[in-house]
């Protein structure tokens, strides 16, 4: 999911540039206004005080209950400005990329990948609700953990009707063990938006088989590049991506602001 395209806030003062937007789908899930800081730039000679005051005034005046910002880990001036405004570090994320895909067929190892049947959506809902325990909304103890589960469940359901996205069930021996939400990108590329293994199937090597089956599905379809985003707290899956030949780009860091 991404923020709205039109900024609700634009600040350009004394070497500081900030753009923020409201996030209506998260607002509905959490029950209070949610915002995203979509762009922040701080010049070496910036005088941040006026921009900080304007940002604080907007957050309070708009009744924001959660504002998030994700920036490159090297953006130290931006990080310090966010901390001065009351934002707090929540997580580090990585963006694994596999390109090109293997030229030879891979072994799906008994994993079936296909669009879900209507009567299987409830099982996928449960996986989406329960599995993303290393996501930023689940990590922030100031937020309702159930709201984080509802957010991913809604993401799954919305993707069923979103052009360019595909919801896939992964099955082992006929039983659903995971879900993938993929998005087609230009240039024969695919983005894995959501990837999850059911909690009951974790720790048994199912994830590696599922990931390999997904790579083979894309290879057979002529995809040349796969990209995704992974929380740095999800250490096992980082190791899985490395074993499959994905390379990790420079990390990014996520900050949250909540009132008080």
Summarize the structure.
The chain has 260 residues and is of the alpha+beta class. The protein contains eight helices and 14 strands.
What's the average pLDDT?
95
Considering DSSP H and I runs of 4 or more, what fraction of the residues is helical? 25-40%
Report how far apart the termini are: 27 Å
Number of strands: 14
Oligomer: single chain
Would you write up a description of this structure?
The chain is of the alpha+beta class and 260 residues long. Helix content is 32%, strand content 32%. The chain has eight helices and 14 strands. It has helices spanning 24-30, 49-61, 76-84, 121-131, 136-139, 145-159, 206-220, 235-243; strands spanning 9-13, 16-22, 34-42, 66-72, 88-94, 96-98, 111-114, 165-172, 175-185, 189-197, 225-228, 230-231, 247-248, 252-257. The strands form two sheets. It has a seven-stranded mixed sheet with strand order 1-2-3-4-14-5-12. Strand 9 and strand 10 form a beta hairpin. Helix 1 crosses helix 6 (145-159) and helix 4 (121-131) packs across helix 6 (145-159). It starts with 8 loop residues before the first strand and ends with a strand.
List keywords for this structure.
alpha+beta, 32% helix, 260 residues, 14 strands
Topology (elements, then pairings):
Layout: E1 9-13, E2 16-22, H1 24-30, E3 34-42, H2 49-61, E4 66-72, H3 76-84, E5 88-94, E6 96-98, E7 111-114, H4 121-131, H5 136-139, H6 145-159, E8 165-172, E9 175-185, E10 189-197, H7 206-220, E11 225-228, E12 230-231, H8 235-243, E13 247-248, E14 252-257
Parallel strand pairs: 3-4, 10-11
Antiparallel strand pairs: 1-2, 2-3, 4-14, 5-12, 5-14, 6-11, 6-13, 7-8, 8-9, 9-10
């Amino acid at each position: 999911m991404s923020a709205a395209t039109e900024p609700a806030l634009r600040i350009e003062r004394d070497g500081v540039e900030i753009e923020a937007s409201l996030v209506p789908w998260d607002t509905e899930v959490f029950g209070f206004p949610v915002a995203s800081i979509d762009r922040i730039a701080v010049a070496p000679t910036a005088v941040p005080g006026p921009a900080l005051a304007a940002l604080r005034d907007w957050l309070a005046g708009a009744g924001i209950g959660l504002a998030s910002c994700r920036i490159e880990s090297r953006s130290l001036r931006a990080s310090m400005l966010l901390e001065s405004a009351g934002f707090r570090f929540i997580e580090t994320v990585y963006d694994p990329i596999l390109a090109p895909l293997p030229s030879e067929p891979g072994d799906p190892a008994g994993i079936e990948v296909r669009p879900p049947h209507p009567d299987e959506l409830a099982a996928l809902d449960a996986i989406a609700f329960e599995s993303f325990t290393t996501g930023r909304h689940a990590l922030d103890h100031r937020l309702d953990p159930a709201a984080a589960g509802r957010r991913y469940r809604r993401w799954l359901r919305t993707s069923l009707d979103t052009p360019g996205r595909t919801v896939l069930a992964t099955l082992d021996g006929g039983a659903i063990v995971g879900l993938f939400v993929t998005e087609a990108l230009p240039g024969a590329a695919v983005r894995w938006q959501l990837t999850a293994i059911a909690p009951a199937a974790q720790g048994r090597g199912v994830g590696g088989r599922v990931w390999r089956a997904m790579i083979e599905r894309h290879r057979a379809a002529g995809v040349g590049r796969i990209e995704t985003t992974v929380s740095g707290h999800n250490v096992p899956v980082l190791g899985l991506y490395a074993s499959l030949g994905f390379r990790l780009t420079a990390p990014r860091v996520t900050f949250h602001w909540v009132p008080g």
